[in-house]
Design a protein that fits this description.
heterodimer; A: mainly alpha; 12 helices; B: 407 residues; alpha+beta; Coagulation Factor XIII, Chain A, domain 1; eight-stranded mixed sheet; six-stranded mixed sheet; 20 strands; globular; ATP-binding (chain B)
Chain lengths: 264, 407
């Protein structure tokens, strides 16, 4: 384990410059460049807002802003986009870099770290844009937003842990990658982002309550829309889930490391 | 000197499990035997001293790349061990890991970072890398606009920017123009002088011969020969011609320890081979430029529809001086009966530099020995060329000079 951290430390410059390159690469040769990082999720918010605001808008108790539903959507989307991006990119990370892994010796753990760094950067930009939108619609952020300093790392850790586990499995069983595309979509709808948990019927709600992303998303909604602190036990539950995921991922990674190149 | 690379009894097996679930269960402590093991390399041992240049040759699928991966460290061996002292750099598939949207300079930082160098070290070396690649302004343009030759220039410049303890050179060197290839070889040689060990993998035997002082031959996952490049290459040539009923025999010739390799089906064999001077007397020492005749008596062991005779002269390093066959001169013999004898005689002037030369003979059915190889015989005859009456010259060719000096 110590060796792992040492390798990461030695390659820190490489990881940092790779994150930069990764962001640079994604929007190379597009006119709007990095703006797309923000525009895509915001466009999605706009679509949901247009389609669903009539149905959902009236169901947000305790809010006064007429754009409350938009704010609700954005808060959930900020949480979800970090999760979805990290998981879906970690999923194919080893498969995509197969050639590199076969030919060059470097700490393989740097690959998920690069993905995490890049996803985190674009998420922070999205967050900035979100605050901009809030100000535009007359919703002043409160100090409760400071909770994001805990919520984002927890979200990140959970996403990387899950992504890494799936990424390792995907090397050996490629079906994982295919299935996860569908699962992620289903997961999105199983998380109260475009709707409120209050509209769910009872038995369905107990299912949703097992979903760690539910607590993350509602945490974001609490601090960004309602201006209240998220329930500590919920954050704690996800934090524990995240640590378990990460530990499992690292354990699997250490076992699989040797066999991975065999099948790539 | 203690070796920089020690490969001891290395083997690699790819494991297949009945189900991948079993593989996953294995990681979590359950011991499940793999359903099948496929050995691609077994019991390979050799060690390499600093500054030595070793060629690794073998047919496709012989296990060369697997061996290289284990030496580089990307693939852990199933059994045995690989010990390396110092850093390994590999010029494998060039331009691998290059990002087409980034500029040459950014890619240099990226690849060198991947090799484990920090920013400062790369910044120190970047000018040198840029100068070596010689691609001018392109260095600051996106790699997608590069030609493959330019990519290879940058890739080679990065891979060799820092002198490694071991440099692995794969086929890649064949890319690029003649000028740059020269430059690459120059750099490789200078590394070698400073003590870098070279591992060269190539199908191009002349490259192995030119750069290596030793070669190892892999065949179906086993190391079957380790020795001087010319000897190993002869054996390799014999091996690729090997057919079902063919045999390869290796004879130790007395004297200087040269090794003769004979291979083929034996449907036709060389009986007697001799070199004669103008008067028809057999000779062993000949003067530079002297007219000589090579006489080869061939015994036909089985009925064969077509017979082509070929010969090749090689210098003592195994470098080819001249070679041709009767296919190219339209003198193919046909419908030969078992028991008969054919004498091939070829006359030429020995326009060779002073030194020792060998003759290899080939008895085949077409212009290559890969279709039907009746017999391939290396070192069938050895002769020496001495300079008795010509002005002193160097080189392996006698090209009569006419100086004209004007004042």
């Amino acid at each position: 384990m110590q060796k792992l951290f040492k390798a990461v430390w030695m390659y820190r410059h490489f990881i940092a410059s790779s994150i930069r390159n990764d962001l640079r690469m994604r929007f190379a040769r597009s006119k709007l460049g990095g703006l797309w990082m923000i525009l895509q999720p915001l466009a999605q918010v706009a679509i949901y807002a247009v389609v669903l605001s009539r149905v959902m808008g009236s169901r947000l108790p305790g809010t006064t802003n007429e754009y409350a539903y938009v704010i609700y959507l954005i808060a959930g989307m900020v949480a979800w986009s970090l999760f979805a991006e990290t998981v879906s990119r970690c999923l194919t990370i080893f498969v995509d870099n197969g050639n590199l892994l076969k030919k060059i010796v470097f700490p393989r753990i740097s690959l998920p770290l690069i993905v995490a760094g890049s996803a985190l950067t674009s998420n922070l930009l999205l967050l900035l844009a979100a605050v901009g939108v809030f100000l535009l619609v007359g919703h002043a952020p409160t100090w409760q937003m400071a909770w994001l300093l805990i919520l984002i790392p927890v979200n990140m850790a959970f996403s990387v842990g899950l992504g890494l586990i799936l990424g390792i499995l995907n090397v050996f069983v490629r079906d994982v990658g295919q299935v996860m595309v569908v699962v992620l979509q289903l997961w999105f709808w199983m998380t109260p982002i475009v709707y409120m948990p209050s509209i769910l019927p009872g038995p369905f709600r107990t299912v949703i309550e097992c979903n760690p992303m539910y607590y993350i998303a509602s945490g974001f909604q609490d601090v960004m829309l309602y201006g209240t602190a998220p329930p500590l036990e919920n954050v704690g539950y996800v934090a524990v889930a995240a640590v378990v995921m990460l530990a499992l991922a690292l354990a699997m990674f250490r076992r699989a490391n040797a066999e991975m190149v065999d099948v790539l | 000197m203690s070796p920089v690379l020690k490969v001891s009894r290395v083997g690699k097996a790819f494991q297949e499990y009945a189900s991948e679930l079993q593989r996953f269960a294995n990681w979590f402590g359950l011991v499940i035997r793999p359903a099948s093991q496929h050995w691609v390399l077994r019991d390979v041992s050799f060690s390499v001293a600093p500054g030595e240049a070793v060629g690794i040759i073998g047919q496709n699928g012989a296990g060369k790349s697997t061996l290289l991966k284990m030496i580089t460290g990307t693939l852990p061996p199933t059994e045995g061990s690989v010990e390396v002292v110092g850093r390994i750099s590999a010029i494998l598939e060039l331009g691998m890991g290059f990002n087409p949207e980034l500029t040459g300079r950014q890619n240099v930082y990226h690849s060198a970072g991947l090799m484990g160098f920090d920013r400062q070290q790369i910044t120190c070396a970047i000018h040198e890398i840029e100068a070596f690649a010689e691609i001018g302004e392109y260095f600051d343009q996106a790699v997608r606009t590069y030609s493959s030759g330019m990519q290879m220039r940058v890739a080679f410049a990065v891979a060799t920017a820092f002198r490694p303890a071991i440099l692995i050179v794969d086929e890649a060197l064949s890319v690029g123009d003649a000028y740059f290839q020269h430059k690459c070889f120059e750099r490789i040689r200078s590394f070698q002088k400073e003590g870098t060990t070279l591992l060269i993998v190539s199908h191009d035997n002349s490259a192995v011969q030119a750069l290596c002082d030793r070669a190892v031959l892999l065949d179906r996952g086993h190391l079957i020969k380790d020795g001087a490049p010319s000897e190993v290459i002869d054996f390799y040539n014999a091996l690729i011609a090997e057919k079902e009923n063919a045999t390869v025999s290796v004879n130790q010739l007395d004297g200087d320890g040269a090794v003769q390799t004979i291979s083929g089906t034996g449907e036709a064999v060389v009986g007697e081979i001799s070199l004669h001077d103008e008067n028809g007397d057999p000779v062993e020492f000949i003067n530079v430029g002297a007219p000589v005749e090579l006489r080869v008596k061939v015994r036909i062991a089985k009925d064969i529809p077509r017979l082509v005779f070929g010969y090749m002269l090689k210098d003592r390093f195994g470098k080819q001086m001249f070679g041709t066959n009767t296919y190219h001169t339209d003198q193919v013999e046909s419908d030969l009966v078992a028991g008969s004898e054919v004498v091939f005689s070829t006359s030429f002037n020995a326009n060779l530099g002073a030194g020792s030369y060998s003759v290899s003979t080939a008895l085949v059915s077409t212009d290559t020995h890969l279709v039907d190889n009746f017999e391939w015989r290396d070192l069938a005859l050895v002769f020496t060329v001495s300079n008795f009456d010509k002005p002193y010259f160097v080189g392996s060719n006698w090209m009569p000079p006419v100086f004209k000096v004007t004042k």
